């Protein structure tokens, strides 16, 4: 598996209509189209709510746009969730259409893509989910051993269900684990050890690879890149526009990662107002410079497998700006492929 600057996206887009979202994606990301998350369509498509079905003690208020776990209710339901997990009851853990209109529209939409190499899906990572989701007392689920464990198991089952669904469309599947909260691991604000974080990540990564899909990891902030580069992932996606210098400090780990076939997904297209001051050429030069730095550190540029993405999801933007970022990502990819 080696990529040559093919383009894809992160997950969220601002469109309300799933057909429009899929059309824009398939028109621009022909090699690696992805199913779109539509958070502006419904609160149920929020990246955390989207994967919440089946969690014990779940309480959702769509009107107030809140989600939490009622621990009293959860205590009575955990055993059932574990039983479903042990029985491999994928139907219980499925992602319903009301929470992922883009996923259900995707099979029809990709029929227009003639040059597909992979199709991409995504799952919220256990660390970010565990820090975001709280109980009724505003305590993060990650600090409740039983709830955090069942949350991780639920995500494992959902990613298996998703991969099997996507493989009916195309046998080659990529799943990105979205972990924005990784920036907090190791800080004084989060009392979670790097070892525990790695263990939960590895559980989800292992499930993805066991299903024959490529496991990617997306983090849109600065973090301990060494820890991530040492995981058994196939693709590491990061905000290369804002954190390229920090990432390249780990050139030793990057060398080991690429030597074993790992792909770097460069999030080089900014998902901020900076997009207005950049051009295809200026972004291409950023990529070339990054590759030169790695080359100077003894990493053969020709052996580096690369994907191009926006720096993060575009779901919070207006449709015009998001479409612009998607198109620039595709154009940057084409330019880099042409120039080798």
Write the layout of secondary structure elements.
Elements: E1 4-7, H1 18-28, E2 58-61, E3 66-69, H2 71-86, H3 101-109, E4 119-124, H4 126-132, H5 145-167, E5 173-178, H6 194-210, E6 214-219, H7 225-229, E7 235-238, H8 240-248, H9 251-259, E8 263-269, H10 280-296, E9 305-310, H11 319-339
Parallel strand pairs: 1-9, 4-5, 5-6, 6-7, 7-8, 8-9
Antiparallel strand pairs: 2-3
Name the descriptors.
seven-stranded parallel beta sheet; single chain; 11 helices; globular; alpha/beta; 340 residues; 9 strands; two-stranded antiparallel sheet; 14% strand; TIM Barrel
Q: What does this molecule look like?
A:
The protein is an alpha/beta fold and 340 residues long. It has a single domain (4-339), classed as Alpha-Beta Barrel (TIM Barrel), CATH 3.20.20.210. Helices cover 42% and strands 14% of the residues. The strands form 2 sheets. It has a 7-stranded parallel β-sheet with strand order 1-9-8-7-6-5-4. It is globular. The two termini are 17 Å apart.
């Amino acid at each position: 598996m080696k990529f040559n600057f093919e383009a894809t996206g992160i997950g969220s887009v601002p469109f309300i209509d799933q057909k429009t979202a899929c059309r824009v994606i398939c028109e621009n990301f022909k090699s690696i189209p992805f199913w779109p998350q539509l958070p502006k369509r419904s609160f149920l498509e929020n990246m955390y709510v989207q994967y919440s079905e089946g969690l014990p003690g779940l309480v959702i208020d769509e009107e107030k746009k809140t989600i939490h776990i009622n621990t009293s209710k959860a205590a009575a339901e955990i055993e059932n969730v574990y039983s479903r997990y042990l029985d491999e009851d994928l139907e219980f853990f499925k992602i319903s259409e009301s929470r992922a209109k883009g996923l259900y529209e995707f099979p029809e939409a990709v029929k227009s893509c003639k040059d597909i190499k992979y199709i991409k899906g995504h799952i919220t990572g256990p660390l970010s989910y565990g820090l975001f989701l709280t109980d009724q007392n505003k305590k993060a689920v990650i600090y409740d051993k039983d709830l955090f464990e069942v949350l991780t198991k639920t995500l494992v089952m959902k990613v298996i269900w998703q991969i099997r669904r996507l493989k009916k469309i195309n046998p080659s599947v990529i799943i990105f684990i979205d972990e924005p909260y990784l920036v907090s691991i190791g800080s004084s604000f989060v009392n979670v050890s790097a070892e525990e974080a790695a263990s939960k990540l590895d559980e989800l990564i292992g499930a993805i690879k066991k299903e024959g899909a490529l496991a990617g990891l997306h983090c849109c902030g600065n973090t301990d890149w060494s820890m991530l580069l040492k995981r058994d992932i196939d693709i590491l996606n990061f905000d290369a526009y804002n954190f390229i210098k920090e990432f390249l400090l780990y050139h030793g780990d990057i060398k080991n990662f690429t030597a074993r076939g790992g792909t770097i997904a460069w999030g080089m297209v900014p998902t901020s107002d900076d997009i207005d001051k950049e051009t295809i050429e200026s972004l291409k030069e950023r990529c070339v410079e990054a590759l030169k730095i790695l080359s100077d550190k003894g990493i053969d540029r020709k052996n580096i497998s690369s994907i191009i993405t926006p720096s993060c999801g575009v779901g919070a933007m207006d449709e015009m700006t998001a479409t612009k970022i998607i198109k620039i990502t595709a154009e940057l990819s084409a330019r880099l492929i042409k120039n080798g």
